[in-house]
Amino acid sequence: MAQPPLFGTLGIYRFFLASCVMIGHLSLGVSPVANQAVFLFYMVSGYVVSISLDNRYLHSRNGIKRFYINRCLRIYPLYWAV
Hints:
By secondary structure, the protein is mainly α. The chain is 80% helix and 0% strand. α1 (6-26) packs antiparallel against α2.
């Protein structure tokens, strides 16, 4: 199933929010903008993951299992590399 066009816009928004968080971490003080960016980044990312779960995995057999396998394969190799 094709992704909705909104996902491209949300990807740009997530990139902008992640950049705000990085700039906040590079500054020496605590930045309220960075704190809000973290909150918004997780909120938007949770929305994207839940829509992906609903569109790609919930309507098929063994969908939840495949979802978690794909999430682990996406997250843990980079985690262990770092």
